[in-house]
Amino acid sequence: MSSTAPNESKATALARVLALIAGTTKHFPNGTFTLGNTTYTTASLVQALQGLANAMTALNVAQAGAKDALTAAQGAQANMGPIVQAYRKFVLAAFSNAIQTLADFGLEPPKVPAPRTSEQKAAAAAKAKATRTARGTTSKKQKLKVTGNVTGVTVTPITAPTATPPSAQPAPATPGTPVTGTATK
Known about the structure:
Blueprint (H helix, E strand, L loop, with lengths): L9 H18 L4 E4 L2 E4 H53 L4 H6 L13 H18 L4 H6 L40
Antiparallel strand pairs: 1-2
């Protein structure tokens, strides 16, 4: 049985227990209580409530530590994951035939696929052909044969006056540079 309400936050539950302790010591400094079938003095009840508060605090600290550890582990995995994967590939390539050496690294040699029977090959070819037909995929040469027909296009000539081509003009002289010739057309 829980001592807190079902939707109560951990901080609220801890505050309620601490408030019970404070109220008990203030209003019943020398009281005796029969709760359930057990008799408690103020000191023993406060001690039991303080034990609950200590357990709740320890749980909060442990959960916060677990969150910190999880965040650290996820960060390390993100940083080292690609390196570990590359190293595994390197070890597999270096010792691909040495089963015992791979076992020392905790790896197994890659499995060689079993040779396919002629029935399996025929079934795969038929499935591939059916898939290409269903999707409408074609080869590069077949795609070149496909052209589109365009109808209903009207070409309208441009009636705006054309711009005159720029004439060859001499480049402007920079200050201090004499112009030695003239441009002719």
